[in-house]
């Protein structure tokens, strides 16, 4: 929500706006504040008082997912097994990409409307880099793999799953299968001594 306490009616309106936006994003509809206001049964001014731009509203819709990923990243960093930590983080990230339509839109945006979005995206980048560095130092991942490689690889899997289609459960199963194949290729070859 916002950092200041809202009156009950304002909080109710804020929640209604975000809920309508969530539905629209899940349906693949581009957010337009006038459309959200109409669907929420609110005045356009009410929506604009809460969200100055469609991007701010979209980022608000994505915030719970980003926060959950950041929290999972903190748990992964506490895992003492570098491979398991990296694998778990990538799996959770991919699951979020497949199940939350707002995530790809927000993470692909060249700029952020909200400071919280920037903070969360930076946290995820830092976590992914640290997990990969730990895996590389433990010699459980290919030494030539860089953090910059992970984002396009994960996006590639998410795109392949979207093209593959199917039910939500089918998409998750396909994503896990594709990720397992990718992870098999990322593992460091056992040394022959």
TrEMBL record:
Signal peptide: none annotated. Residues 32-51 bind DNA. SUPFAM superfamilies: Homeodomain-like, Tetracyclin repressor-like, C-terminal domain. Keywords: DNA-binding, Transcription, Transcription regulation. It comes from the Bacteria. Residues 10-69 form the HTH tetR-type domain. PROSITE patterns: HTH_TETR_2 (PS50977). It holds the Pfam family TetR_N. PANTHER family: HTH-TYPE TRANSCRIPTIONAL REGULATOR BETI, HTH-TYPE TRANSCRIPTIONAL REGULATOR RUTR. This is TetR/AcrR family transcriptional regulator. It comes from Streptomyces cellulosae. The lineage of its organism: Bacteria, Bacillati, Actinomycetota, Actinomycetes, Kitasatosporales.
